[in-house]
Request: fold
Amino acid sequence: MEGDGTRGESKSVSGRQSGRRPTLEEVAALAGVGRGTVSRVINGAPRVSERAKDAVARAVAELGYLPNQAARALAGSRTDAVALVIPETEARVFSEPYFLDLIRGVSAELAAADRQLLLTLVRTEAERQRFEHYLAAQRVDGVLLASVHGDDPLPDRIARLGLPVVMNGRRSEAEPVAYVDSDNIGAGRAAVAHLVGRGRSRIATISGPLDMYVARARLGGYRAGLAEAGIQPDESLEATADFTEEGGRLAMRELLERAPGLDAVFAASDVMAAGARGVLREAGRRVPEDVALVGVDDSTVARLMDPPLTSVRQPIEEMGRTMTRLLLQKIAEESGADEAPEQGVGGQPRQVLPTELVVRDSS
Amino acid sequence: MEGDGTRGESKSVSGRQSGRRPTLEEVAALAGVGRGTVSRVINGAPRVSERAKDAVARAVAELGYLPNQAARALAGSRTDAVALVIPETEARVFSEPYFLDLIRGVSAELAAADRQLLLTLVRTEAERQRFEHYLAAQRVDGVLLASVHGDDPLPDRIARLGLPVVMNGRRSEAEPVAYVDSDNIGAGRAAVAHLVGRGRSRIATISGPLDMYVARARLGGYRAGLAEAGIQPDESLEATADFTEEGGRLAMRELLERAPGLDAVFAASDVMAAGARGVLREAGRRVPEDVALVGVDDSTVARLMDPPLTSVRQPIEEMGRTMTRLLLQKIAEESGADEAPEQGVGGQPRQVLPTELVVRDSS
DNA sequence: AAGTATCGTGGGAGCGCTCCCACTCCCGTG
DNA sequence: CACGGGAGTGGGAGCGCTCCCACGATACTT
Reply:
C-alpha cells in the first residue's frame, strides 16, 4: 500500500529546514568533510582539527542536525539511558516525598549529562520479571536502585548481568554493591545528643523493621548516642515498628506501658513520629513538655504536625545526584576500559552523605 | 559444520563480554523460516501459517530471543517510549504525593503495554529547551503532560510537531488538546453539599490561583453548591491563595477578618486546609465545632491533621492510567491510520473522572 | 637525508531490524 | 486445462550511526 504516507507528510509540517531530518551524511556533505569526521566532532573525540570542528559546527547549526538515537544505539551498542528502579513495596514505607526528591536529583543530573531517565516501578513479581527482561535486552546502560530490602537479590543479579549498578541505601554494613546512603547512624546520634542537651534522660526509640539496614543503623546511632552521654541502655525503651503511622502508634502504646517514665522519643521516621504523637495526646502527655519527640526525614509531615516536629533531615535530592554521578562514572569506565587508571581491584564506590538536625517545637 | 556454536559453549561467566544475544536471523535459521516470517510472528502480523508461528515460537523460546529495540526503532522509525513531562514549578503547588500517584498509574499502564516511560522534570527554561530538542529528535512516540499552567504553550507546540499528546488537567474550559481531568467542579459541589448537610450556612472558600483552571473549576463548584442549597453567594467569603500552606494561612486570616461569622471553610487543597487549620487554632476556633473544614486531594496530610481532615479524593492513579491508555490509542491510530475507530471529526478525546468525598472528623 | 611516529581524515562494513517486492504454491474459476 | 489471484513466504534494501582500517600529510627522530 502506498497509503503509508504518514512518514513523509507528517514531517513536512515542521518545514523549517528541508522536509526530512538531516542525517550525519548530509552534515558531512555540507561541511565538506567525511562522515567519520562529523561523528568525531559530534562525540567530542580527540583528534580533530579546529578547522574541521568549525565547519561541522556550522553545518550542524545550519541544518538543525540532531543525531538519531536509535541509530546511535544500534551502531554503538549503548543506549544513553539509565533505569531508576523503585520497588513499590517501599513506597509506603518511606514517607512519600522521599522518592520524588530522589527522582528529582537523578533527573537533574541525568539531564545535565544528556541521558534519558527510565523510571521503573516494580511492585509485583510479574513486573520484576518483566524488568529483568528489559535489562537482559540491554535497553539501558546502567541501573539505579532505590531503597532495597535486606535480602533483595536484584542488585546482585543485575551486577552479574554485567550492568553497572548503584543503589540508594544498602542492605547491610558490608554491602558488596556500590551505593550512596545517608548517615543513618549519625542521624540517631544527633537526635539523642539533642534530646540529652534538652535535659532528657529517659529516651525511648521507635525503630523501623530490623531486617532493613536503615532501621538497624538508626537504632545503632541511638544506642551510640546514649553511650556517649553516659546513659545506660534499657531495652524496655526500644520498640520496633514498620515505618508506618499505625506502626508508630502501636509502638508508642507499647512503650508507654513498658516504660511510663520516658521523657523523650526518637522515632526513626516522621510518619511513625506522627503516629506516636497521636498516642501521646490520647495518653494526656504533652509534647514537648512531658515527652520530647524527634523524627527522621524532615518531610512535609514534620512541618504540619502539631507542634511542628524536630526531625533529622536527609539530603535526598543530593543522594539522587550523587548516585547518578557515580553510575555515569562507572558506565564511562566500563566502556573506555583502558581509560580508568586509578580504579583499584574490586573496590565498589560507596558514599555516605551527612544528615542534619532540624529543630522545631516538639523537643 | 555450523562454526557458530550457538549454544552451550559460550557460557563464560566472565561478565564483561556477555555471550552475544541471538538475532532475528538466528531465530529464523533455527525455525527453518525466513527473516520476514519471524518478524511477522514477533509483531503479530496477519498472514502467517500456524505451522510457521509454531516453529518460530519454539525457536524464540529455545534461544531466549529478545528483539533489539534500537534496531527496531531505527528500521521502524518508532521508539516504543513515551515521555511524561512534569513541570517542576507545580511540584510545590500540588501536594507532593500527587505526582507519585500519577507516575504510578502511568507506569503501570505503560508496563502492561511493554512501553518505556521516560520521565522528564522540566524546571528551568533551559531544561524546557532541551526537552523540546528531545521531542524534535523523535525519541518518543508520544507525550503525557502533567498539570499545565493556564498559558503554557508547550502542549500546542508538541501537538504541532505532530506528536500525540495527552494532558493531565486542562488549561481552560475549552481545551483544544486531549486531556484527562478530574471533576473539579463536582469536587466543590460535593464539599459544599456536605457542609450544608452538616447544618453550616456561612461557608467560606480558599481557592487556588485563578489563572489555573483547576482553581477556577473548584471555585465554580463551590458557588454552584451554594446556589443549589439556596444560599446567597457572598464575595467576602471567597479568598484566593496559591495552593501552599502559607497561602492557606494568609487566606484564612483574611477570611476571619472579612467574615468573622463563618462556620465552614472549603479549601481547594489539603495543604491549604492545613494552613487554615493553624490559623483557626490560633484564633481560638475549634474544628469542627466552630468551623468545619474540608480540603481536596485526600493526601497523607489530610489523614495526619488534627482532627483528621474531610477531603475530596481525586482518582489520581486512575487518571494516570486513563491518560496513558488514551495516548497509546492515539499513537496506534496515528501509525495505522486506516484503523481509526469511532473517533469523529477533529475531536480530541477528553475524559473527566469523578471525585469522591472522604468524610473525617473536621466537618 | 631518510625513516618513523603522529595527526587528521575518508569511507567501507556492518549493527539488527522493518519494509516491501517478488516469488511460489494452490485454490477456484471460466 | 489453462488461468487469475490470494495466502504465505524469502530475502534485498536500506534506516543512520559508530567502528576501524587505510591513507596522505605533517612532525619528530637519528
Chain A touches chain B through 60 residues (CB under 8 Å). The mean pLDDT of chain A is 86. The first strand of chain A starts at residue 81 and ends at 87.
